[in-house]
Amino acid sequence: MGLGIATNFNEETSDDIWSPVGSKTVQNYNWVEDDSNFPKGPRSAVIIVHRDGKNLFGDGEGTDTSLALESTRRMFEALDHFRGTDRYDELCNYSTYISPISNETSCQIVGATTFWNESRVAFEASVASNEEALAVMSSELYPSGSKVDFNQIIGYNNFDQNGVLNYGKSFVVVVMLPPDDEDTGNGAFTKDFEEDVLDRMLELQDKWDSDSSHDFKVEIIAERSFEDEFSRAITKGESL
Prior knowledge:
This protein has 240 residues and is α+β, with helices and mostly antiparallel strands.
């Protein structure tokens, strides 16, 4: 360790360090990744909008919903900021997902934004009140006809006796990006895009945090997040 610090040695980290060398876990993982010829799955990025544990939809006691419209707008703002990152559209051309709405290749997105087909324009055109926003997000089916898993898209969700959403602690939006070129040779340099999108989303996080007019927060997790943070921890330790 002393030699490494003295020579500024760098090591690219991976999940391999957490499993014993030669263990069945490592052998099975290597077989799936290298020998099975299974197609590589998408790389997921997760956007989370929350209020530090408070109800997304209101400040009042119990199930106040006076912020439902604003919180939904914040969710769309976060997603649009993500999709506004350079090369997003280009990258999604490498996806194998075909949108059931447009019938075109795109990055699959799963979240409450899917009730409006990921379109902020459609949301703003069709929803004008807190009640309308919650009514749409209470549907058991997305516009495509697929079934909604509320626990996947709204953390700590609750519904009133009429089946209308009235409480939630977080919006969760998952964006499925194509596998990286390193794994498939498909030309999709997803890891490079993830670096850019993480920086861009952290800028939005700082912007929201500095705005005292609201307490909404945004978080972002990508496939490379663990590796990046682990490497930063090592570098920080070396500089102490």
